[in-house]
Structures are given as C-alpha cells and as structure tokens.
Amino acid sequence: MEPVVFASLVTVAPDASETLVVQLYRSIRTAVLEGRLTAGESLPSSRAASALLGVGRNTVNAAYELLAAEGLIEVRPGTLPRVAALDLGRASGSTASVRLSDRARAASTTLRRGLSEGRLAPGSPDPALFPADAWGRVLRRAARHRQDGAEGYAHFEGLPELRQVLADQLHRHRGLICSPEDIVVTPGTQASLMIAAATFADPGEIALVESPGYISARATFEAAGLTCRALPVDAQGVDPAAADLTAVRLIYLTPSTQYPTGVRLPMPRRLALVEAARATGAMIVEDDYDSEFVWAGRGIAALAAVPDASHVVYLGSAAKSLLPGLRIGWLVAPKGSAHAVQAVQRRLGLAANVHAQAALAEFMAQGAYRAHVAAISSAYRERLRLVTSALTEALGDRVQLSAPDGGLQLTARLPEVADDGPLRASLNDAGFAVSSLSDYFLDTPAQGLVVGFGTANARDARRFAETLRRLLDKGDGG
User: Fold this and answer.
1) Which pairs with CB-CB distance under 8 Å and at least 24 residues apart come from 6-15?
2) Which of 77, 82, 113, 184 is nearest to 419 (CA)?
3) Which of 58, 47, 56, 60 is nearest to 10 (CA)?
4) Would you say residue 94 has pLDDT above 60?
5) Which of 129, 131, 157, 177 minimizes the number of CB atoms within 10 Å of its CB?
6) Taking the model in full, what pTM does it have?
7) What is the mean pLDDT of the segment spanning 86-110?
8) Does residue 91 surpass a pLDDT of 80?
C-alpha cells in the first residue's frame, strides 16, 4: 500500500485518553476487519510508519506486535509487515445493497443467450484480415501530428478532417447530401444509438425495432428508458403495412443489410416508411449495417438519401470493415439538429479516440479504405459459400437458410426444432458461438440459429454442419 493511503486509513490523537499504542493498534485492526486493508497487503515499516504518523518508532513496533499476536498481521524479519489471510466470517449480503435505476436494470438484462465471440459468431469480422501494416503507418503519423487542440477537449464531435472525408465518402458511396457539420464521430454504433435516443426521444416514449432484429439496439433503447415494440420483418425486410406508428417516436431500421436475415429493403418499402414516418412525426434511425458487403444484386443508396428524408438519423461505423476494437462510428444528424446532437454527445462523454480518427481520415482519403473493403469482400463472399454449401449438403431441406444480400451472418430456420435454446447451448459447448434465432424476436419467435461466416474456413463449416446434423438426429431442441 502507498504510504499516503496508509496514513489516511490510520488515525492517532496525542491528546486522547488512550495511549498512542492502543490508538494505533485499534485503528489498524478496524481497517483490517472492515476490509480496507486486505489480505496480503503490505504495511509500512516501523520507521516509515513512525515518520508518516508523527509517533515514535517504538510505538509502531508495539502496535504491530499486538496485531501480530492476534493473527491480524504477519511480521517476519527482513520483510514488510503484511495483512494476514483471514476468514472474517462476513455474512453474504450483509452490507446494504446498492439501489439501481430502472435504466440500469434494463441495461443489465441479458437478451441474448450463449456466447458472443468465437467460431461462427454472428456479425464477427475476421481480425486476420485487418490491414495492420498500413494502419500502423497512418496511426504512427497521426500520433506524431498535433491535432489542433483535439489532444485535449477541442473537436469533441470529431476531427474536422475525418468529418470532411466522411461527408465526401457518404455522398459518393451512400448517396447522402450532408456537410461535415452534420456529422458527429462516436465510439461506435451503440454510442450513436444512445445519442440518438437521448436527442430525439424522451423516457417512456415508444421505439419500433425490427423483429427479428439487432438485440443491442433494443437493449440500448430500453436502457435509455424507451418502450420497444416489434416491427415485423418478412422475406423483404420491414413491412410498412404491418407497422403500427401510433404514438411512435423512433423507428430503428437496418435497411441496407437487415440484421440478422441479411435482406435488403426494396425501394417501394423504403419510400412508404419514410412517408409514414413523416406523416406521424416519428424519427427513423437508419443503421447502415454492413452496407459495404453486397452478395446479391447491386447495393442501393442509403435510406437517408431518398427524397424527404429530413427526419432520418443515419448511423455508420468501421466495426466490420476494419475492426470493432477501433471504436469508431459516425452519426449524420438531420438538418437543423446537429448542434443538439453534439451537445448530447458531449454531455454523455461519447467521444472517439483522436489518433484513431486521424488515422481513419488519412486511410480513407488515400483510397486505402475502399481498396481494403473490396479485398475483404471477396474473402467473405467465399466464406458465405463454404458455410451455405456445408449446411445444405449435410441437412438438405431440414434447414431453411436465408440467402443474405449482404452482411456477415445468415439465419438457419429449423422446422423440426421446438426450442432452439438447448440446440444452441449444445453447439456452444462444441465450440461454435452461434446464436438462437428466437432471441432476435420481440414478437412471436421462429426457431433456428444465427450463424456467422466472417471467420469461417472449410474445416469449421463442415464440422459445424456435421455437429448440427448429429444434434438434430438426437432430438436436441425437439
């Protein structure tokens, strides 16, 4: 323990009725029994404690001897005194429990069962494909370069050069017409969702979320105090005709690559949703998830790029194109709301790392980002083929696979399974981090699995398909 901390835990008063030895003994004894001095923790030497507390060295030695006699500390020649390992017999839960807010309890609720990382985990990119050498070069340059005050608290909303290059990239590749001033750089999509919820909705208001849909979006909205209702998804994505927008404040969508099914929302439905939201005053939160990866047909512009999309909040990130661990996302605020969005971001403290921002700005500006996306897309397309082929060969019509237009996962519906929880647990035990499809529903769930292919190889694909067939034959989930 640092001497200054020890001195703050131990008090002696020269004018007290008890001797200094007794005071010191009782003060240290209380700190040990209350757990403020923990087992194995070293105490200052008698010389150091004497100087810290302003008492004689003999006083300290006498107090230490009393403590050692009780077995509270251990004193050995040539070493510092240490707190002994004690069974203090504290009753479990004897201390007063900490009161949590309703939002904290909502945030603590586990909505998805099973593993979140591992082989075939949904939505996981392959870290082996990260351009480490190229990124290292731009990151080193960023670390050496002064960032115009952003090393402190300037440009909390994002580095100007990154916001500029994002505005250009979003216009050229996603069809958005936005200025750098409309963009806020965040630590990722979860942070962007919290900012959007805090800016455009109040606790108790209703958010529509896709069902099946992104579990963490639902969790974030509920942690922000919103009430989530299901927005049904069919084979073409969200169905506007099935959307009840009564008293709805936020509508969360993944129109470019619906999560987890991978379907792309067609233009007629996009326009119908925008018109319905405009008529009711609801805000659309567009998560442009995995729009870089297109496996079928041609990608189309973002929802925020359609006419009359002035009430669409656009979210993007570098999580799948580069790495989730970079913690960089971006939010494009609707016209006229950027100042409020920036104020909320600052109050929540959700700023992105300045050196990572500078590195990404250079990486994008020099064209390396788009080249990297093109390269990894080829790898992921082949991995989708491996997993799809292995499951089809092993299971035939026992499995109904989605044909994702994009993204890094597919859904496998299993008509013979009545409860996908035990099946998912068995697959997790076998080393596969797949998820239960039923977890992604807010309304009546379908049974099956959500399978990631970002890190798949031929061996894992075959082993997974064979393991799933064997479990189905045994009746797991039936």
Assistant:
1) 6/43, 6/44, 6/49, 6/52, 7/52, 7/53, 9/36, 9/37, 10/53, 12/53, 12/55
2) 113
3) 60
4) no
5) 177
6) 0.83
7) 70
8) no
